[in-house]
């Protein structure tokens, strides 16, 4: 297992760098999809500690993470864990949050206020503030004021960097131009990307546009909600909504999973490590979720080596043949 050091971190802004793999915290507070219960908190804190101690220095969350009355729970837990942590790499800790485009957030100040609420839950400033999705497809006039709010967070020094999520290349260029004219750097773009969800990046050519504009591309759900770990089959399914989804995806994904498994066996790696290394080889920063320390350790094993060109080609070919890939996020724009 590779332990990441400062030399491995990727600079995305003058005052901010990210480890080449982050930790997604969607599950931390989500009962509907992930079956969260407060009894898991000690395990989640151990996961946080394992990540940070071994060099996964950034955690991705969102102010909408946590179901029902637990809304904001992910941020709250991260704040509690960070406040109690005394181990290595604390000085490099980065917390990125995504600010939801709720229908009642209509003004510049509403987004700034939302970020301040996130900071209070975290007990520390937000490092990377991201707009969670674009309302351009359904309420286009809402977008401008929220982008202005994101710009104000940067202008006032309330965050170290700003980014977007679920934006396609056309929308990305538009927002990048808007910010560039104000002298504001756009640091990151986060999209759904995995071996079972390649269309957003490959068909829209997002990576090339990000490279052109100097925006770092972050891959969320790089393990497709855990399906690419190889732990599940038709007789062994997770609970909740994932069970229905995996029943839909597994039959068509078998050739890809078989290819992934063969490479993992030949390499002495896990299937999750192969899937994450593929994302890294594609020039993205993946943010796999982790709910217990063993998953954090497994994710770290995706670093320190690289798939070769032939293995990447085999995986690409198998991914292209999947008849029913993961559905695209409904908020993804072009």
Quaternary state reads: single chain
Q: Give the overall silhouette.
A: globular
Question: Count of DSSP helices?
Answer: 12
Sheet-strand content, in percent, reads 5-15%
The total strand number stands at 10
Strand ordering within the main sheet = 3-4-5-6-7-8-9-10
Please tell me how large the radius of gyration is: 19 Å
User: Fraction of residues in helices?
Assistant: 40-55%
Category from helices, strands and their pairing: alpha/beta
Helices and strands, in N-to-C order? EEEHHEHEHEHEHEHHEHHEHH
What would you give as the CATH superfamily of the domain at 16-225 and 283-304?
NADP-dependent oxidoreductase domain
Question: How would you describe what is shown here?
Answer:
It is a single chain. This protein has 334 residues and is of the alpha/beta class. It has a domain at 16-225 and 283-304: TIM Barrel (Alpha-Beta Barrel), CATH 3.20.20. Helix content is 42%, strand content 13%. Strands 3-4-5-6-7-8-9-10 form an eight-stranded parallel sheet. A two-stranded antiparallel sheet has the order 1-2. The longest helix has 27 residues, at 241-267. It is globular and about 50 Å long.
